[in-house]
Amino acid sequence: MLAAVAGTLLLGGPGRPVLDAVGISPLLDGDRSAFSEALDVVPLESERLSFTNWSMVRNALDTDLGQDPAPAAIEAMITQAYDTDLSASSSIEDSAVALQTYFGFSPATVEWEAYAQAPDGAAMVVRLPDDVDLDTVRDHLTEIGFTEPGSKNGVWDGGIDLIAALDGTLTPKLQYVAVLEDEHLVVTSESHDYVQRAADVALGKKKSLGDSDRARELVDSVDGPASAEFWVGDFACKDLAMRTAFEEDKAQAEALVQQAGKVSPPSG
């Protein structure tokens, strides 16, 4: 049974994380959400986490494309997800077809996607279904020119020139890849060192955002969302500040403030 969560939920407070979530939540008592799982595989120092539960999105759209979907089918699914505002937090929706073609996975086939940004780096983590053979991903990486690592959970080296030559929709965050077999995770970043660091977090060797009691409390307070944005500490104020907005958005905000009028302190 599915319940639609209408609109957007904004939670947080002074000195606390902020969560902006929207989507469709499964009503399963005691079920640990995929969003909660994502906290455990991104670095503790992450200041923003963008999360999309693609399995939930596909269910909401009544779409099952299998593990080898056609490009047209992927494009149609992405368009539907965009139109229903279920893909707003994704960092890979624009490159979905290229990802499936060159990497062997995409929003059409992964369970969920988490993109974490920290002061010293950023990493994407995708969870693949249990029945997917991760050798398929490795074979794709070999075929497109990545250098294979010397260890099981090591980093596959690509580089910006390789990614740019493949497809214009692929982003720099796909330059370096770690394939974690036992966890059924793929970790990517534009930095070799940072993807190794993020992989160590996903492997439980370093602390994750899930080790933050405040982050865990906030995420566990809501049913698993299809799409969510999570800000840590004061970074929400910086990231959402109007100074970074487009000029037309700044003008609209100014007009709304003037329309609201002055704010007077309560009396009595």
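^ that was protein a. below is b, sequence first then the tokens
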Amino acid sequence: MKLKRAVVIFIIVLCWNLSARVIVNEILYNGLGSTENEEWVELYNDDTSQVNLQGWKHCDLSSCKVISNNSLILNGGSFIILARDTARFRQFCDSIGIFYDCPVIQQSGGWNPLGNSGDNIIIKTSTDSTVDSVAYTNDPCSELHTLQRPQGVAVWIPSRYNCSPNIGGNPCNTQPDSDLAIVYIGLNPEYPSSEDAIQLKPQIKNVGKYPRGGSLYLYIKAVRNSGVDTLLIDSLTLVVPMIDTGRVETLVYNRAPLDTGCYIIGGVLSPDDRLSNNERSFLACVVQPTHLLISEVMTNTLGSEDACPGGACNEFVELYNYGDEPVDLGGWLITDGDETDTIVAWRTSDLGSLTLPGLIYDTLVLAPKGFALILDREYASGNQPYNIPSGTLILTTNDNDIGNGLSDSDTIKILNRTRTPISMRPGSSTYAEDGYSYIRCQLRKDGEFKQSPVLNGTPGFYSNEMEGEFFDVQIDPQAFNPESPNPNKNHITINVGLPGSSRYSMKIYDIKGRLVKELVKETDTPLSTITWDGRDMYGRVMPVGMYVLVGEAPIKLVSGCELKEGARKTIKKAIAIERPIK
């Protein structure tokens, strides 16, 4: 196939000879692959009188080919197809179900190949008078779609320009004024399992000149015997409401889950509603349920995208097993649309361990309700910025990068051993801030992705404390012993762990719950170390017995895409006064 242009700019010019009534009505110039054997030109006699095409020529700007050396009558109101290869024309139309009922001939003088990037089609009489000519540029139509003259149009201009909405066009017919077309049938979820209810969303477009409505017959056929035959298992008729010209209407049909297997799903517009492209179908396979989600991705890390360690080496993809059975990821793949990698275990013998404790290595089995992180192989050699909780399965790929290096616009997919996509993160047209991940707001298949509310995302968890996360209290010693030679036992040292300038309160209670002393108020300047000398708020020595230290700090809780404030974290520690304090 000849080179196609990415930018579609076209000019169509028709020279009209009022003394003639034979017109170029439809053209298939963009055949299959590089052979182009599907090319054809349709002529139409727009008069009541017959015309003899003997000796007429089909020309371009460089040469002419005789259409027929013998008598060839084109009756008034009739069509004729000039085909590059008549056998291929018939075979192709039959294979896609296009009906045609006009003569199809192969030119006596051979064929002038039609250029994809532009060409001229000139029809001349036996005396070399130009009857009709068409010029097109820059490949206006997709492969196997035709260039069509709208009905009754003498001069093709951009505002009246038509590419056939269907493959194969509309041979042996004028283009209808009122015309509905099935442009697409959506399936949700895109890769259903036998547990998923499905939704079909056919899109109907009015490609004609006037408002039109009609009906659509939807069907689902099970593929049997390795594709040899099919069995109709579901069908219904949907009403197509009145659609204005050029507009698209989306219909919706919801149904219960399908059994595991492959299906042909399609729709047919009633014959009165559509003269061409009245049917569209596609193959969909329903897989065994695998309860796995892409739950978070980091595509825009802190630091330079080219820096590694750091930067690009800190990209990750988080997986979540929402099922009740473990998932073995052996042989599974990950792709960003540019490159596909095999998911492999993080082998500590090759890559070492991360600095955080309790992570799971050297296996591809993801436990029920567990999280896994697919990390760059060089993550361990960098600054390891993520606070990954214990119990997270650490994975990587067989390549240095994840895919071809992740970007916001990448559609990221996880594929199982049969190369069936199990979960995906659609590409985004907006960009996340540096250091913020995309997180699935609800841990289910239809959960939408948004930017994480916190820096560095939430790798390895869905809901967790953020501010206040590191609030901790340690006491030394845990008991007063004034007679001990160790001077440290004459008071209690309280070490407080809390990031930044976060506030907290610290109080001492007796075992009956009565306040003994408020060591730190939440309004006070926070300290990392405080002491208690065993006296109450009035300076009185407290008797031998058990006491309770209670620390409280406000925290923020991240849950999916939300950051919730107002929660508090409370820590309690027991303190004993073993001997009387003098």
